[in-house]
UniProtKB/TrEMBL annotation:
Gene name tied to this protein: rps8e
Biased composition (Basic residues): 1-25
Amino acid composition bias (Basic and acidic residues), ranges on this chain: 26-38
Protein name: Small ribosomal subunit protein eS8
CDD domains, alphabetized: Ribosomal_S8e
PROSITE patterns xref list: RIBOSOMAL_S8E
GO (cellular component) term, any one: ribosome
MF terms (GO), sorted A to Z: structural constituent of ribosome
Family: Belongs to the eukaryotic ribosomal protein eS8 family.
Keywords noted in UniProt: Ribonucleoprotein, Ribosomal protein
Disordered, as annotated region: 1-38, 103-123
HAMAP family tied to this protein: Ribosomal_eS8
Transmembrane segments: none
NCBIfam families given in the database record: eS8 (TIGR00307)
Amino acid sequence: MKSHGRSGKKRTGGRRRNVHKKKKHELGDSPTETRVEDRKLKVVETRGGNTKVRALRTDVASVADGDEVVQATIENVAENGANPNYARRNIITRGAIIETSAGTARVTSRPGQDGQVNAVLVE
């Protein structure tokens, strides 16, 4: 289980004994790697009783061209600056260049956090 608490080791390499167990607010989660496939969303509970929608898989993007926004189907990920392997595995993150039915676009939203893909056409 991932934790954002203090490390169990001191700077010197010695062991640091736990003062308390892992608290829920210290726990982390692995990143949501949104793939290009049929749409599948996941609702996650967050702090304060709120919820967050994560896109596990999606094949639709809202592509903006100036003032006009069009729903386009995602064909594949052309390149991804976050990780070259993400482009090979068709994983969408913010800043990724995707090929859509409307043309080549750059993703401006965070699909793993927002649950949707927003993009701007690249000329």
